[in-house]
Amino acid sequence: MTDLAAFGATRSDIKARHALLTPESHEWITQPDWPGAEMAWLISPDLGAGLAMGLVRCPDACDAAPASDGIARFVFCLEGALHLTDGTVLEPEGFAFQPAGTGSGLHLPAGARAVVFEWRFMARGSLPDALSGRVQDIAGRALRGDDRLIVQKMLPEDVRFDFEFNIMSFDPGASLAYVETHFMEHGLLMLDGGGVYRLDRDWYPVTAGDAIWMGPHVPQWFGALGRGPSRYLICKNYNRSPMSPR
């Protein structure tokens, strides 16, 4: 990371319809709604996305304000512990979904790290309840019958949820079955291992800590490399038609 920065280089690559955001280019800032924390917002509507995705680190304890009106939030603990206002404690790989309008805040002790996703919620019937859980408690299923590629779904398969959050786990050498193209967009954070991601006509080596934005209709494919498994956290807008507002 230091060598890249010293020579004005970065692996980050920003294109019109996709982006690779790598740690050596992160800009850490403070924000009034996250006092005591430092934020690196990697994906935002200014990029062309319909969601925001940011990393949070806490040199000091932070009491984060609730999301703005109409905005849903999903938070995933990377290090330390996160405390929800209902008393729930999220340890590493614990997660929480907070629907729009819940008014719930978040306490992060010093040393905690998390990734936060926010988006403008599209209601379909009644709002879903807030929920929390742990990745280790979620049964995995083989994706399209490939037992080398396991998906864990963190939100219920319920049409009231307009986003989906999954953990994708790849054995060494495993890959997506084909190059996907669809009208949904993705935000992604590499958790472990690495491999090669195809986005449009570009091919990117990726490793733990890298983030990706994939816009609608971007051809996309991932293949895992190395001796150990590779995992990433990925979200997509879901239960929406192509004519739904972003």
Automatic annotation (TrEMBL):
<dbReference type="InterPro" id="IPR014710">
    <property type="entry name" value="RmlC-like_jellyroll"/>
</dbReference>
<dbReference type="InterPro" id="IPR013096">
    <property type="entry name" value="Cupin_2"/>
</dbReference>
<feature type="domain" description="Cupin type-2">
    <location>
        <begin position="167"/>
        <end position="233"/>
    </location>
</feature>
<dbReference type="GO" id="GO:0071522">
    <property type="term" value="F:ureidoglycine aminohydrolase activity"/>
</dbReference>
<dbReference type="InterPro" id="IPR017627">
    <property type="entry name" value="UGHY"/>
</dbReference>
<protein>
    <submittedName>
        <fullName>(S)-ureidoglycine aminohydrolase</fullName>
    </submittedName>
</protein>
<dbReference type="Pfam" id="PF07883">
    <property type="entry name" value="Cupin_2"/>
</dbReference>
<keyword id="KW-0378">Hydrolase</keyword>
<dbReference type="InterPro" id="IPR044697">
    <property type="entry name" value="UGlyAH_cupin_C"/>
</dbReference>
<dbReference type="InterPro" id="IPR011051">
    <property type="entry name" value="RmlC_Cupin_sf"/>
</dbReference>
